Amino acid sequence: MNTENTKAQMRKGVLELCILSILLNGDAYPTEIIDKLKETKLVVVEGTLYPLLTRLKNTGLLSYRWEESTSGPPRKYYRLTEEGEKFLKELQQSWHELVDAVNKTINQSTTQK
Amino acid sequence: MNKTLSINISGIVFNIEEDAYESLKSYLNKIKSHFRNEEGCEEIVADIEARLAELLKAKIHAGKQVLVMVDINDAISVMGQPEDFAEASSSQESKKEETHTAQGYYGNKRRRVFRDPDSKILGGVCSGIGNYFDIDPLWIRLGLVIMFFGFGTGLILYIILWVIIPEAKTTAEKLEMRGEPVDINTISKTIKDEAENVKSKARDFGTNVKSQFSNRDNTGKFVDLLRQIFGTIFNILGRLIGVFLVFFGIIMMVGLSSLLLGFGQIDNVTSGEFINSFADPDFPVFWAKFALVLAVGVPLVMIIYKGTKMLLNIKYHNRWINIGAGIAWVIGLCLSFTIAAKFASQFSEEASLKQQSDVSMPASDTLYVRANSNYNKVDADINFSMDGDRWLINKQGKASIWWAKPNVRIIPSENDSLYVFIVKKARGNEKTEAAKRAKNVNYKLQQTDSVLVLDKYYSFPGSDKFRQQEVEVLIKMPRNKVIYLDNTLKYLLYDVDNTNEIFDQEMVNKYWVMTDNGLTCRTCPKNEFKHPVIIHPNMEEVHIEDPDAKVKIDENGIEVKSKDAHVKINHDGIKIDAKEEKGEKGDKGEK
User: Fold this and answer.
1) Complex ipTM, two decimals?
2) Is residue B308 part of a domain?
3) Is the CB of A58 less than 8 angstroms away from the CB of B50?
4) Average pLDDT value for residue range B325-329
């Protein structure tokens, strides 16, 4: 088993959860989202984000509005739709359950050693 | 001074240097093709362009109006290369992609062959191939090691693979290396996808042909489409051919190596002994082998190389490999021809030695001829057939003796006396050499009263090497005298003319008299079948193939057909149809 592969798979799974969580604190445009994700080293390059955002928008979890920008072309500000909020709550709940379960399993196996 | 272009990204105008523009353009094209299969592709690309515009805008200020290469590279490094964001985009799409796009074949999730640097022993070739086929690399290694002992084939194959398979360097490549497993399911899926692809392309092709005449601009697309259709067909074909080539190449390689190393088998002779039997001490064995390696081995290596490339769909071009192989091959051919010509000259001159034997016609006027088994075939260390003859070799340390059967011919004598000649033949580089070899051939015959006893085998020393040594026993029979051919001559008689026109082997156990027309059988049953009788293997039918008559014997009975008669014998009785009724023929049989 290759650790790079596993890590990449894990990152993929949580990325959507993180994007939705960031947007829960308020509307944001892609660069802002990326900056926050970069702090936590979840994303290294910006290109990763755009296909994800488009997909989330197309499934109806996000909506966006255009806002003029002083430093370039107009920006897409994304916000959570009601559906998105509901989805996020479910995701968060199952995330916490998962983390608990995983922690328990990890702790058990480390104490057993 | 540099030329600048004016471009528009997401509604913002930039001045950009030409080389920077080329780099940006190719980057955007890469992104477009990367997301080609994704839903909302255009939107994603537009978002990325907008962000790029924002990043580039930040590079422009009052003192710097033009974008240069460095700016583009900075922006690209922030955005990242498409292969770096593969990890986020492909996971969810992969399932969808499988169902809705035939283009998946070209998509990024397609598994590719890389050398695996993480679990390598030498170059990571085996682990890489293991990843590709989802096999434990141990088996691949084992296979290669076995093939290595199979005369170094494994080593050659390994080196070829090492050269042509790239190493997985980036994370994306490592993921690609593991991608979707290549097993029966995915292969059949791929082929199905491809077929679907070809079908839909063909459909598009049809509509395109129609619009072709109305819309000239479509020519480019149309040609593209053709290329894609044939591309996919060739892809599948290419892989199949690749498998075949690799397989064929490896088998031939093993054969060649075993031949060269001297333990390949030809009949039951090892190739080393075989070569030894022909080659003089001064024969350039090393150069002959070297020439063979170049003339045959090089093309085989190239076949394996091309086959592997086709099988694993590796795009790797190295002009020097082709040129080098070509040169080596030509050298090998020239060398081979030179050596072959030199070797052939060893057979250029023939000498024959004719010895008359002290034999006379017995008073009884009948000569009995038989062969004495002066050698036993089972004693031979080596037993093989060549040139239609069987050769037996006895090894005696480094020396050896060859044994073979002579040809016995019987022709009419010019006068009333019996003559028997032993004709020994051999070949060589020069006449004297050939004569010396012929003299070394050992063969005897002996007459006791009316019986002539021939040796069943002649022999010659192995040190003479094989130079087509032959022995012919020529019996010149006087007219009206009788000769009896014993059963032991069965395989010695060769091309003996007889008026009964029977085969040499069937002439034994019979008395023959020499007439003006040749030997005539005295004790043969009259009316022997002139036409072949064919008995089917299952013995259900017997056919006599005569253009005039046919006999058929099977479970239904016997049926005879000829030009003017038809006879049937079966459980219904006997039925005879004839054109002309002569006498009583129509006997109706009873049940």
Assistant:
1) 0.82
2) no
3) no
4) 92
